[in-house]
């Protein structure tokens, strides 16, 4: 299992490294060709940041599945951690909220993303935003370091979600909280779709079943779990047909089954 998890991490690094190296005219979404290994080019997850304070187009690679800062209750002066910070999009939005008295730290395990985020930060001349190379399952931070943790369409790519939420719990201050947007599954997806490595690296096959996902959060020790937003991801027939039979597609389309993006928050117990 450990070797399988490490292999999956390498796939994620490779795919997102390639995305980071694209120029702005070649931006890719989480569902685009280089990401999911499909010839269909369409956006199923990302949301529009353009009217948000702090938004920087150079940092927006259309890889999110929500806008966690909308529900994270970030305050001026907070120290915010963004997990899987990519080119810095959510960090710069969070920085507009914490102001000069706060601080924002981005964590990413892809060197190319860290480089791109630091370049964007340098252009903006922000002194209270930093980007750190590291693994969500073993974060390079002290205990109780952050007021708020955010993440956008990243935890679904982490093999050991229990370990990830345990680390979130550890680095949060007592009574601190997280708010993450992520991809989850309702009902059982055929293994062919769920386990495909290309889909895992870019889309949904690494996503947990929704009830299990929420149970992990609860068992970790978080309280006040709230789902702020839930949106079904409608996958086109031609993509599903690559992985599912006609009968499986019919079952997939049943109500309350399928792929959903959620934005969920919870508070660390004191």
Structure in words:
This protein is an alpha/beta fold. The chain has one domain (2-268): Rossmann fold (3-Layer(aba) Sandwich). It has helices at 2-20, 33-36, 89-98, 111-124, 161-171, 191-194, 197-202, 210-220, 237-240, 246-252; strands at residues 79-83, 103-108, 129-133, 146-152, 172-186, 208-209, 222-233, 258-268. Strands 1, 2, 3, 4, 5, 6, 7 and 8 form an eight-stranded mixed β-sheet that branches. Strand 1 (79-83), helix 3 and strand 2 (103-108) form a beta-alpha-beta unit. Helix 1 packs across helix 4 (111-124) and helix 5 (161-171) packs parallel to helix 8. The longest helix has 19 residues, at 2-20.
Label this structure with key terms.
270 residues; alpha/beta; Rossmann fold; eight-stranded mixed β-sheet; 8 strands
CATH superfamily: Vaccinia Virus protein VP39
Total of helices:
10
* CATH architectural name: 3-Layer(aba) Sandwich
The number of distinct structural domains comes to 1
Q: Any low-confidence stretches, pLDDT <50, length ≥5?
A: 24-43
CATH class: Alpha Beta
Helix content estimate: 25-40%
Q: What is the terminal-to-terminal distance?
A: 33 Å
Tell me about the biggest sheet?
8 strands, mixed
The number of strands is: 8
Structural class by helix and strand composition: alpha/beta
DSSP strand content = 15-25%
Dominant shape = globular
């Amino acid at each position: 299992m450990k070797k399988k998890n490490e292999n999956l991490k390498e796939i994620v690094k490779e795919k997102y490294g390639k995305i980071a190296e694209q120029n702005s005219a070649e931006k890719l979404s989480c569902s685009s060709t280089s990401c999911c290994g499909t010839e269909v080019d369409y956006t199923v997850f990302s949301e529009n940041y353009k009217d948000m304070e702090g938004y920087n187009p150079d940092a927006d690679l259309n890889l999110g599945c929500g806008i966690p800062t909308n529900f994270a209750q970030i305050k001026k002066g907070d120290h915010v951690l963004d997990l899987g910070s990519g080119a810095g999009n959510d960090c710069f939005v969070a920085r507009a909220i914490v102001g000069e008295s706060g601080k924002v730290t981005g964590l990413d395990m892809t060197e190319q993303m860290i480089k791109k985020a630091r370049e964007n930060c340098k252009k903006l001349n922000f002194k209270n935003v930093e980007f750190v190379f590291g693994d969500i399952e073993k974060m390079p931070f002290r205990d109780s370091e952050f007021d708020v943790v955010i993440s956008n369409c990243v935890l679904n790519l982490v093999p050991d979600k229990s370990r990830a939420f345990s680390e979130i719990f550890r680095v949060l201050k007592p009574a601190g909280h997280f708010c993450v947007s992520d991809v989850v599954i309702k009902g059982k997806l055929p293994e062919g779709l769920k386990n495909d490595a290309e889909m895992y690296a870019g889309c949904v096959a690494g996503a947990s079943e929704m009830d299990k996902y929420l149970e992990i959060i609860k068992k970790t020790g978080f309280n006040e779990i709230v789902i702020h937003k839930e949106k079904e991801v409608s996958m086109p027939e031609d993509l599903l047909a690559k992985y599912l039979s006609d009968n499986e597609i019919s079952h997939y389309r049943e109500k309350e089954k399928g792929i959903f993006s959620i934005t969920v928050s919870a508070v660390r117990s004191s």
